[in-house]
Specification:
By secondary structure, the chain is α/β, with parallel strands linked by helices. It contains 8 helices and 8 strands; from the N terminus they run ααβαβββαααββαββα. A 4-stranded mixed beta sheet has the order 1-2-3-4.
């Protein structure tokens, strides 16, 4: 995403970009014996909730195993019930070598993130070789444990799956030429509107949604991201769809 890279740097060399959801391009990169790892979002978040082809992560895992490359799954946005399963990689039955979590890990109470892996990978870092000032914060870890229990005990993955399908069905039924695409998985959805990536329509709509009582985030000028609370119910979903319908009719 150029908008996330401009104005920063210099960047560490040795990190190459691979087109998303392009297995041919990925295999061409992985065939280089100097490649150590491939890091990917199971569903692209900031790019506009881009859902790859069915089985993408399983095929990525197979390629990484073929070329002895570590698979790193960035599930900061998609993990912990957001897509209708505990992890987005679960949709493809994929177990990455390294898993990155954050955001929902504390239920929004405290800043906390985590890197999960096998002993074989993690223990290549010996005691004292890597440290973090706030790493292992006991309060943040206790909150994270409580948040994980809530996700399981209150069946948040199941609710995310059902409510996400209800949301996208409602959005798809809105009678407007303004909306060109509705996509997503679980309670991670996007509305693509009839504008260019450089336009302002998505932002304009989001500002009017805010005034109407609904918060959403624009990205790339023509995409609106929707990530409601995992505990949202059917009545609230329908209310949200009604607000979006009403705002779209103003344009």
């Amino acid at each position: 995403d150029p908008s996330c890279r401009e104005g920063f740097g210099p960047y560490m060399p040795g990190f190459d970009m691979v087109p998303y959801d392009d297995l041919v391009a990925l295999e061409a990169k992985l065939s280089d014996p100097d490649v150590a790892a491939f890091m990917v979002e199971p569903i692209q978040g900031e790019a506009g909730i881009v859902v790859p082809q069915e089985g993408y992560m399983a095929k990525v895992k197979a390629l990484c195993q073929k070329y002895n490359v570590l698979l790193i799954a960035d599930e900061v946005q998609t993990g912990l019930c957001r897509t209708g399963k505990m992890l987005a990689v679960d949709w493809d039955g994929c177990k990455p070598d390294v898993l990155i979590l954050g955001k929902a890990l504390s239920g929004g109470v405290l800043p906390v993130s985590a890197v999960l892996s096998s002993h074989e990978v993690i223990l290549t870092i010996k005691p004292g070789e890597h440290g973090s000032t706030y790493g292992g914060n006991p309060l943040a870890c206790r909150v994270a444990m409580a948040a994980l229990n809530v996700l399981k005990d209150e069946n948040m993955a199941e609710n995310s799956l059902v409510m996400g399908e209800r949301l996208r069905a409602g959005l798809a039924a809105i009678d407007t030429d303004l909306i060109t695409t509705v996509r997503g998985r679980g309670l991670l959805s996007a509305i693509v509107v009839d504008d260019t990536e450089e336009g302002s329509l998505a932002m304009d709509i989001c500002m009017q949604l805010k005034d109407a009582g609904l918060l959403a985030k624009p990205t790339h000028g023509n995409i609106i991201r929707l990530a409601p609370p995992l505990c949202i119910n059917a009545e609230q979903i329908d209310q949200a769809v009604g607000i979006i319908d009403g705002v779209c009719r103003r344009f």
